[in-house]
Amino acid sequence: MSLAYFPGCTLSTKASGYDASGRAVAQALGMPLAELPEWQCCGATFPLSTDNSMSLIAPTRILTQGQKAGGHVTTLCAICFHVLRRSQNFLGEHPEMLERINWFTEEPYQGTTRVSHFLELLRDDLSWDALASRVTRPLAGLKVAPYYGCLLLRPKDEIGLDDPDHPTILHDCMTALGAEVVDFPYASECCGSYLAVSKPDLPEKLSKEIVASARRNGAQAIVTACPLCQYNLDHPQKLIASGDTVPVLYFTQLIAVALGLEEAVWGMEKHYVDPRPLLSDKSSVISHQ
Amino acid sequence: MSKIGVFVCHCGINIAGTVDVAQVVAEIQKSGDVAFAIDYKYMCSDPGQQLIKESIAKYGLDGVVVAACSPAMHETTFRRTVASAGLNSFRCECANIREQCSWVHQQEKDKATAKAIAITRSIAEKVKGNETLNPLTLPLTHRTLVIGGGIAGMQAALDVADAGYGDKEHRSVILIEKQEHLGGRMAQLSGTYLNFAAAPGLLQGIIERVTHHPNIQVLTGAEVVEVSGYVGNFRVKVNLNPSAPLSPDFTFDIGAIVVATGWQPYDRAKLPEYGGADIPDVVDGLTFEQMLAPGGEIRRPSDGKIPREIVFVQCAGSRDRERGVPYCSKVCCMYVAKQAMLYRERVPDGQAYVFYIDIRSAGKNYDEYIQRAMTNYQVLYLRGKVSKIFREGDKTMVWGVDTLSDRTLEVAADLVVLATPMTPTASAVELGQRLHISTDANGFYNEAHPKLRPVETLTAGIYLAGAGQGPKDIPETVAQASGAAAKVLQLFSKDEMTASPMVATVIPELCAACGVCVETCPYGARQIHPLWNIATVNAALCQSCGACVVACPNKASQVHNWRPEQIMAMVDELM
């Protein structure tokens, strides 16, 4: 059975590698993703104004499409996930707002769509053991630092994916792939987020600190579940000496590698720091079985 | 025939604005048992009370009804008035025609007047049947149990013991301590703040006095197992060796109990953002005290190096509704200043940082002390919270914010001291249940009134001292302990106790010893007498709730002055 999938804008453009690897991995794991028809942008921020009804219409429409597609919508983008899950929670607690928004939408939203992040499905619906059993090329010897950022985990009570101070979900995923997990203190610090647009020097500064800390702690790669985190950590590395760079990957890309999927679906062409030399250095990192 | 006087109060316009008080007087006078009735503007005023007193003498009254406010308001006042005129105070009752009549029927004045008349008549009927009663006397054991041998318990024990009430054979104070030695948390401190006095020295003198006091029996390594009885007459079972499986319990007769169980440090594992308990060079305040104490050394636990950069984190877990405890631990601002100054004395080239939300140094000479740390000792105070502590190499990294300069900071520290909150001891709630005293949401014992009864509990005869009631420092603890001791001595100033005679009683001829009253009584005041085979009432425990009266199938249980025939007569007047 396929899963209703909301890619979101970023995964259709800058983060197309996340989208491609995610779809390929889902297919390989027997939970193929079926893109929602006629979807639009989720708004990219969860509205926090006093009257947020306008800004809730877009996410509500996506939830309605999820409702039509079987009552469950999954995402790969941490930001879309954040917006959709918080909107879903908010509408559940504010039936009067749901009623109001339903005046503006083509069909009424019932308020019951399950919103999940694909990473959460791997943990809760598939299980790490099941994932591990599908690995054909364990990432043995690859030292990878999970980087969570903010929006995937916070606010804790509303998102409820993992403990924002001590998250383990990416750790567990990497362990299932056979990689060596590296802890570093910046794992759930902010990457600078949207300030990449208005104040690019800030993410550049943060990226430098985050990447340097990951390196100090022995990481060969950083793994994330958010397209903005990937962009903000990866692209500013153009300012770093080439010997000090660390590739920043999506977890789906590393799963694709570990499942033995062909390089065409890895989707690493748009990365500034190309991870492929590290991953294809078969003698040192990837041990074929 | 009775000679009852009825005194109808206007309460200004509170009653008279709604109830026709003249008509109440006129109607009540028609009753054969009413010898005299009158209304007056304020019956509780001195002239009003004088009117009652004079009327008792003038008309030879044998009962008084004051038709006025609720008995909860002025019953005591009017009973005292009646007693001063030579009439038994239990021959006086209040008819509530204010809260239960005029205030709630302001729009229906005629009906209100009729209701006031009915209420007053009904109470007059009750007074006719009221017995003459006298306060009960109960025995009082002049021995105190102090639970906890820290500074609070020792101070309370000394104050009570110094007042006497005992001898070598019958010591007046039993001091029990769970640990094998006296001293409590104060024994773990290097010194006190304000005067830098060495805590062990201060404490040693007190411990000597306690252990050699002829009126104090010290039981260490002991625990309270069971508490029964009531004020003046507790029976307390104590086990002297709780860890041994067959250790017998000892029972003591106790008149008053002082609970001085103290505090324990917050569990650092609950602070994952500060490394939980996993970073070796992050310690709590109490651990740092050991480094400052005589014989101790300020060294990094990880490698024994002398720390050159030390960070103190105030409010580590306190004032944190979401993740820690919501309250202010009160002592941390002061002891952090002390620890930072002592650090600077021992490591003169070291740098001390203190992260704080705000400085709470309310107390005599307290703020001056903090200023000393800032100016004389160059301790760097940074106003802001620490967000994260983690290990990097051999350093402990501290991320925080200085909200005064609006900057985020990173300190590569050698040692981090967390000023974690004082929390109640692990067994505080359980002990509270054994003692029938309540604890608050944080596990601290509740005082009887937050402003006016800070050392008493709501259970008579049980008093509080020290940090078990809430975070406090040594001077405040000592003051509260002395306050608790004063309350004990106030209780002990009499040879026996008096109690209200308005309690349940049993008509022995009607009692079948079925035991229904024993099961019904919520206060444990009833039992079947083993020899006489009738139900008895423990007057000290009875709250005259009347549950046994209703339950008794033979109508053998009665409450004094609320006998069934009185109640029936009252109902007749109302119907």
Please tell me about this protein's structure:
The complex is a heterodimer of chains A (289) and B (575). By secondary structure, chain A is of the alpha/beta class. Chain A folds into 2 domains: 3-119, Glutathione S-transferase Yfyf (Class Pi), Chain A, domain 2 (Up-down Bundle); 126-280, 3-Layer(aba) Sandwich (Rossmann fold). Chain A contains 14 helices and 8 strands. Chain A has helices spanning 9-12, 16-28, 53-68, 78-93, 95-102, 118-126, 128-133, 156-159, 169-176, 195-198, 201-216, 227-234, 251-258, 276-280; strands at 3-5, 33-35, 72-75, 114-117, 143-146, 180-181, 221-224, 248-250. Chain A has a 4-stranded parallel beta sheet with strand order 6-5-7-8, sandwiched between helices. Chain A has a two-stranded parallel sheet with strand order 1-2. A two-stranded parallel sheet of chain A has the order 3-4. In chain A, strand 7, helix 12 (227-234) and strand 8 (248-250) form a beta-alpha-beta unit. In chain A, helix 2 packs across helix 13 (251-258) and helix 3 (53-68) packs across helix 4 (78-93). Chain B folds into 4 domains: 4-129, Rossmann fold, CATH 3.40.50; 144-262 and 425-496, 3-Layer(bba) Sandwich (FAD/NAD(P)-binding domain); 266-421, 3-Layer(bba) Sandwich (FAD/NAD(P)-binding domain), CATH 3.50.50; 503-559, Alpha-Beta Plaits. Helices cover 29% and strands 24% of the residues of chain B. Chain B has 15 helices and 28 strands. Chain B has a 5-stranded parallel beta sheet, with helices on one face. Chain B has a 5-stranded parallel beta sheet with strand order 14-21-15-16-17. A 4-stranded parallel beta sheet of chain B has the order 2-1-3-4, with helices on both faces. In chain B, helix 2 (46-59) crosses helix 3 (71-84) and helix 5 (109-129) packs antiparallel against helix 15. Chain B is elongated and about 95 Å long. The two termini of chain B are 23 Å apart. Classes of the chains: A alpha/beta (289), B alpha/beta (575).
